[in-house]
Amino acid sequence: MTNIRQISRAQSPVSLAPEQRLAALQEWKRSNESFTASYRFDSTGTALEFITLVGLLAEKVDVHPHVDWRFDIVTLHLAHGLNTGITAKDLSLARRISVDAHRLNGAVMVDYQDRQTTA
User: Fold this and answer.
1) Are 39 and 73 in contact (CB under 8 A)?
2) Nearest 5°: CA angle at 98, between 97 and 104?
3) Residue 73, phi then psi, degrees to nearest 5
4) What are the tens digits of pLDDT across the range 43-81?
5) pLDDT band, very low/low/confident/very high, at 13 (cuts 50, 70, 90)
6) What is the pTM of this model?
7) Cα–Cα distance between 59 and 15 in angstroms, integer?
8) Which residues pair with 110 in a beta bridge?
């Protein structure tokens, strides 16, 4: 069963190193090549509104996450290269995504994995 918790409005102090700033964004989980967050919304329409907001934000900062949409759940993957690491742009986008998810009453899906892709 997937755990759900509400999103906090965590601030990410500029003085922290990128790894520490990512850790402050508790809903984002890091892997070797990306960091990921999954959110559940009250409806499919709200999930689509969130995807639109993410797309508009991504265009502004020229960072384009991979988006996986399953009815009322949206999973985002922000990829980075092994040599480049996490950039300030990545962290800024992740923080802004988290704020928009909170504004739309999204719930963080902890350890969410789509059953269709893991079966």
Assistant:
1) yes
2) 90
3) -115, 130
4) 999 999 999 999 999 999 998 899 999 999 999 998 766
5) very low
6) 0.75
7) 26
8) 3
Amino acid 5 reads: R
HSE of 93, CA atoms in CB hemisphere, 13 A:
27
Q: Are 65 and 54 in contact (CB under 8 A)?
A: yes
Instruction: Render the chain in DSSP notation, one character per residue.
Output: --EEEEPP-----TTS-HHHHHHHSTT-EE-SSEEEEEEE-SSHHHHHHHHHHHHHHHHHHT---EEEEETTEEEEEEE--TTT---HHHHHHHHHHHHHHHHTT-EEEET---HHHH-
**Measured on CA atoms in the order 54, 59, 64, 69, is the torsion positive or negative?**
positive
pLDDT of the residue at 118: 41
C-alpha 103/C-alpha 114 separation (Å) is 24
Cβ contact 64:58 at 8 Å: yes
Q: Is 112 within 8 Å of 89 (Cβ atoms)?
A: no
